[in-house]
Amino acid sequence: MRFGKGIIQVMEWALPIGIAVSGSAANAGFIEDGKASLTLKNLYFDQDFHSGDAGPSRQTDWGQGFLLDYSSGLTDGVVGVGVDVKGTAVFKLDSGGRTDKPGRTRQPGASFPLKHDNSSVDEFSSLGVAVKLALGKSVIKAGEITPNNPVITSNIGRIAPQTYTGTEATSSDLDGLKLTVGRVNAAKSRINSGHSGLSINGANTQRPSSASQDGAPARFVNEFIYAGVEYQASENLSLQYYHAQLTDFYKQDFLGLKYLLNLGPGRVNFDARQYFSTPDGKNGKASGLADGYTISGFYGEDSPYITKGKVDNRMTTLRLTYSFGTHTVGLGYQKLNGRSDLPWLNQGNGTNQYTFTSTLAAAYTRAGERTRAIDYTYDFSGLGIPGLRASAMYFYGDQIATKLGSRKEFETDYTLSYVIQDGPLKDLSFVWLNAPYRTNLETARDSDQNRFIISYTIPLK
After folding, report:
1. Distance between CA atoms of 166 and 147, rounded to whole angstroms?
2. pLDDT tens digits for 60-114?
3. How distant, in Å, are the alpha carbons of 3, 14, 180 from that of 171?
4. Residues in CB range of 226: below 8 A, 6 or more apart
5. Angle at Cα 406 formed by Cα 400 and Cα 412, nearest 5°?
6. Could you read off the pLDDT of 389-404 as tens digits, one per residue?
7. Which CATH entry fits the domain spanning 1-156: 2.40.50.100, 3.30.300.130, 3.40.50.10330, 2.40.160.10?
8. Which of 139, 348, 356, 421 is disulfide-compatible with 204, CB 3.0–4.6 A?
C-alpha cells in the first residue's frame, strides 16, 4: 500500500492549498447550493437473554436523537471548496439501572455511554466537520467522514451514527468507473462523543491470563488505508475490487460481482463476494501476538493462543434475490475458511460488516462458519396500503470451530415498517425490528431482541 499512502499524503497536502487558492473565489454557490436537514430519531431497544450464567437478564434503552446534516455547495473556480457538517444530540428517556448493581435484572443496552457509577449518561452530543474539494467528478473530503464500501462501513444501529476521522477521495470522471482511496486514523462510535483508535475483534478488550496464554492489554492503532475500483461493465453487470490494511493487524483483498437479469415477470439480482485476509505487522509475529495484537478464532490445542492468534481467513458470500410485483424472495450462502474470524474494523462498541449476515443479533463471521439464509419481503402497496412493508429473514450458521467442537447459531429477523405517504406528516416513518436468536456457543447467549424506531426528517434548506 505504499502507492496508496503516497496518494493520501498528496491529498492531505493539497487540501489546505486548494482552500487557499479558492478562498478568493465567489462563494455564492457555497451558500445557495447548500442543503441542510434535521432528523428526529426515537429508539427503544430491548434485549432479553434466556441462557448463560452471566448477568444481566435484560438490556433496555430508550432515547431521542436530533441529527443535523449540512452539506454546503461549492465555491466557484477550477477547484470548488465546501464543507459538510454533522451534529448529533442524544437524550435518554429511560435506561436500565447500572452494569455493576448486585442482583440486577436489567442494565443499559449500549445506546448511551456509561458514567463512572456504570449507569448511562443523560445525554451526549458531538459535532463533526469535513472540508471537501471538488474538481470535475472527483471529490476529496478530510475531517469527519462516513465511508461506505466493502472494507469500511459506518454503523447506524442505534440513535447516533458511527463516523471516522480521516481523508477520502472518490472519482467518477471516467464513464462506468469509480475510484476510491482513503485513510482513517480514528473512529467515533454510535454511543460516544469522543474518538478512539482502531482495532479488531480479539484485540479490542483486555486479554486475561490463563494456563495457555499470557494476559495482554487491549490494542488500538491509528492507521487504516484502503483503495478500490468499481466498474460498471454493462447495464446489468458491475465488478468491484478493494484492498485495505489495518496497521499491525491485517491486510484484506475484496472481489465483488453483481449481476441483474430480467426473468419472467420479475428480476433476478445475483451478488457474489470474496474476502482474502492475512496478517500485517505485529499480528504476524510471535512477539506481537504476545502483546495482544490478535484476532479471535480457533487455533487448536497445540497453539499457545487457542482462541486468539493470527489473521487467517477466506470468506465467500453468495446471495440471490428474485423480485416480482410486490414480492421479493432471497437465498443466501456464506462460508468462512481459515483459523480466524473475518477481520473488520471493530472497536468493541457496535460495528457493521459488508455482508448480508450483518444481522440484528449476530454477524455469522466466526472461524469455519457456514451460513444459509432465506428471506421474504412484501410491499403492501399491492393491497392498497402504500408505505407499509414486512419482511422475514432466517439465518442458520453451523460448523463454527471452537475448542469444544463444532457449534451453531441461528435467528429470524422480522421487520415491519410504515412511512406516511402524504399530508403534513409525510415521510414520518415507524419501524419495528424483532430478532429471536439461539445458539450453543459458550461465548454467546440465547436472546430475544426488539427495536422500535420513529424517525422524521425536516428539511431546513
Report:
1. 10
2. 999 999 999 999 999 988 999 999 999 999 999 988 766 555 556 667 777 888 8
3. 17, 16, 7
4. 4, 147, 149, 151, 152, 180, 181, 182, 183, 184, 242, 243, 244, 245
5. 55
6. 999 999 999 999 998 8
7. 2.40.160.10
8. 348
